[in-house]
Amino acid sequence: MDNLKAFLERKNIVFSAKRYGIDALGAMAQGLFCSLLIGTILKTLGQQTGWALLTDIGTYAMSVSGPAMAVAIGHALKADPMVLFSLAAVGWAANAEGGAGGPLAVLVIAIIAAECGKAVSKETKVDIIVTPAVTIFIGVALAKLLAPPIGTAAGSFGLLIDRATKLQPFWMGIAVSVLVGIALTLPISSAAICSVLGLTGLAGGAAVAGCCAQMVGFAVMSFRENKWGGLVSQGIGTSMLQMANIVKNPRIWIAPIVTSAVTGPLATCLFHLEMNGAPINSGMGTCGFCGQIGIWTGWMAPGEAALAKGAAAITPTAFDWTGLVLICFVLPAVICPLINQVCRRLGWVKDGDLKI
After folding, report:
1. What average pLDDT does the segment 39-62 reach?
2. Whether pLDDT at 46 is above 90
3. Can you spell out the DSSP letters for 114-134?
4. How far is CA 197 from the centre of its chain?
């Protein structure tokens, strides 16, 4: 047992929820951002402007989302170069075999392949053959074996959320908005979660609402402490910057959470706000305005996950644009500070509690 422990330590193989559930998951979201998300944006811009080069560039970027995710995961797991480069093939296979649930398949299979590759890396004199062979063989074999059922399970769960939101838009609007918003502020990746579940449609709209409530809400209600720098870093960066303050005083989280519980059902029931772009956009909120760009691209040219659920391109009306602006920016900026003022009057939140 001691020898095994020493071996794992030497290979930097750490079995922990943080390593796999936070580090790897967050890295996977970055890989998706640098391939599928940016590719979708460029492709949509190309289609709308008639610029074929942009369309081609976006298409190529979207096509390598599997390898990008796997390599990003390997980097988070601190894989050696030979393992890291071999994960490109693993990611491609897992994403292709996983179908609609490809991102979850990539996450699980890339982690296993990377750790196996790390275990044999630099252990033989023919490392240049052994390491990539082991990494790719195990990864691709698992992709053929496990990716289809993983993809089916993830896709089915995402479809269940989608249908439940259509049947119960009020209650599911609250649930999805609150939970995804909380995930965005926690040190995990809400974007990766939404991508894994293929969260689009009304459920995706509710997710965007929840994320915006957290980001814009925290940014505006903490303006007195953090000024313009805090407004920008939280509003178009991440509300995760408040996590240390939340640990110190969890009550500062009341206002953004209640705000998301208000804007979520407004998005689903009143404005019928659907996010039919790439599912990763559902968990991005106002980060780089990716949530809003996702809604726009979904209007113009729905993504594959949305098309599979019956989405179609639309010409947005003034009501659609009004809903987008109100849900993503105006309402969080108004409601969250008002609720926070109530918390201040009750003595639950004090000056300095929101300083980052």
Report:
1. 87
2. no
3. HHHHHHHTTSSTTHHHHHHHH
4. 10
